[in-house]
Amino acid sequence: MKMTAKLLAAAVVAAVAGSAASAESIYAPNLSYRTGPFAATGIPLMNGQKDYINMLNARDGGIGGVTVDFDECETGYSTEKGVECYEKTKGKAIVTQPWSTGITLQVLPKTNVDEIPILAPGYGFSPMADGKVFQWAFNTPASYWDAASMILQYIDGKDGLEGKKIAFLHLDHPFGKEPLPFLEKKAAEQGFELVPIPVGLKEMQNQSAQWLQIRRERPDYVVMWGWGAMNAGAITEAVKTKFPMENFIGVWWSGHDADLAIVGEDGKGYKSISWSFPQLDAPVMADIKKHVVDAGNSESNEEEMQGVFYGRGVVISMILAEGIKAAQDHFGTGAIDAAQLRWGLENLDVTEERLAELGMTGMVPPFKTSCSDHTGHSGGWMLEWDGAKFVKVSDLLTPESEAIGALEVEKAKEYADANAPWPMNEDCN
Amino acid sequence: MFYRTAGQFKTSYTADQALFPVRQDAVLLIVILAFAWIVFPLTASEFAFQTLLIPILIYSLAALGLNILTGYAGQLSLGTGAFMGVGAYACYKMVTLMPWMNPIVAILLSGVFSAGIGVVFGIPSLRIKGFYLAIATLAAQFFLVWLFEKWAWLYNYNASGAIQVPNLDMFGVYVSGPQATSFTQYYVVLAIVSLLTWICINLTRGRPGRTWKATRDMDIAAELIGIDLMRSKLTAFAVSSYIVGVAGALFVFMWRGAAEPNLFDIPLSFRILFIAIIGGLGSVLGNYLGAILIVGLPVVLGILPEALGLEITSATVEHLNVMIVGGLIIFFLIIEPHGLAQLWRLIREKLIIWPFPH
Q: Second label for B193, Cα 20 to 30 Å away, from A164, A304, A338, B78?
């Protein structure tokens, strides 16, 4: 009897000690999609994210001495599974990385109640930039409206927007419709004609009807908001219909190397705006190679690691890691919680010097967030497919913050009103 | 032994025709209801509410609606997802146009709209049957989803084209929207599902159910004994679409919180059809069993490796999950082509005479 009591006590002690030891880690799950119709684009991003965190764990023992427990929950890009993953992880997670506009829209209203930050780098709902309304959501470093603004600026800089006809080929889905309010506003202001051409989810792979319309309309430019199978479909169709590739510009999710590799030389001139760029000789890539790939802990491969998307995954994890670090420094504690991470993500200041320290110069433009600006509006570069890989063809483009800011505040207010009662962060202005 | 019917005498026709002629069945139902109404809500975690309890109930209700049409009245429909969408969008428009409206009333009323649409698309069933009718309902499916995408008024001209459920309260308690707790939402869903199931049991056992079954088994014979086929088929479409519409409103308002048009596309229709077929066509119980298998099992399988401490990556779990659930569906359909409800019926019969098979 006594023996059992002792054993029991020992077990309890061991359990307590065990949990104390594991408390010194930060649980940061990622709602990944390595399966399903969007897996081809998902895998390089997920690998980039995972490898960067694993590299930090291996090289520095985590962030601020605390290991990051980076876990994946598979969604297959399905909103239903995404919500399941959110519910599964929210108990101990300090962050939600929803990875689809659908899942983001779904969990966005819940974050005020659950108090977990959403990190949606370069996707989600553009008005999330308004930190006053969306206290818990971050689409650092650039939003879809930023992308639309930069693309228009690029066209304007090349041969003016006035009187031009721009076809907006987009996925008929919340993601594809996202930049429409901004583009419509700009079309009225700058005097160009906008022709929205939606591509239904069922028509992604066969866009002959849409491209027939493009041939009939004869637009000066085609701007594409595509994802997954839609990109390859559009690019092959553009090649087939002999649309001048240099006048075909995609959003950052339409700049996947594998989609262009299918057409190779024929895709030469195709452009994609991007807030990230793969720097193969960057010190961070060498560290990933040394600590993760050579140790056999990476699911990636040589070819994939040279792509735009893998590099972007690395940058995304860097944003999270910087948020964690900022919070640790401010609160003086290693194992930060979700609310502290929110502070960290609100006070990111990734300067050129910091990027150099991280060994990531040129992989992402510098950006800075604040309480009222959750995007940071880093700007981006125009990338062009040279037949084998993407190259930079512009200097840093920056979005017109003023026009976007006004629209963000307006749409954020609409959202808050529709979802009343919606708590506002009155402390920031 | 457990199902001993010895000593349970029936002395009147009423007793013989009772819903539960065997006492143990009634006891079993009481136990299940006690679990559903008391034990589960008190013990369930947020995760269990959101991924098991609420979705299983909602999918069961949608399958029940489809079963009335396909299982009882014999009219194959592939438009269930779209009819759910009609319910959801009707409910959304009602609560945004009339914010004072009681959310439960709005949910129950939204079924009326889908019933109306269902009847309209049911009219071809008077002339065409079987696979041809399935194609006609498929047209409803494509048309309605297209309408949800193109008719901006339906989603209040929202830029993203999706609908977001507002916070709605009832007597000071939030029942839908992000502020509502899963606990409240579960009870709302459970109450509505219980009520509609009770109504359906009575309908299918009563005169309407018998006319539906007669229509299903042989429509010419049914007509000869004086059944008005038009009425029979259209009531089946109306009742079925009503239930499916309510399920759609619950789907979005009590569970998803937001919806985009393609949510109601054909995969949803197929999913519900599978639940009804695997559960058992022409049964009420089958819908619940089917939903547990198709909706609940993948969730349980998904958390199993982690609970057992196995180191399997999340993507692999997902692949295994698809394989296991697919395998099980084939297995169940081979051992009992009439679905899980029939399987349960056989087990019950065996149990009644067990351990003496003669």
A: B78
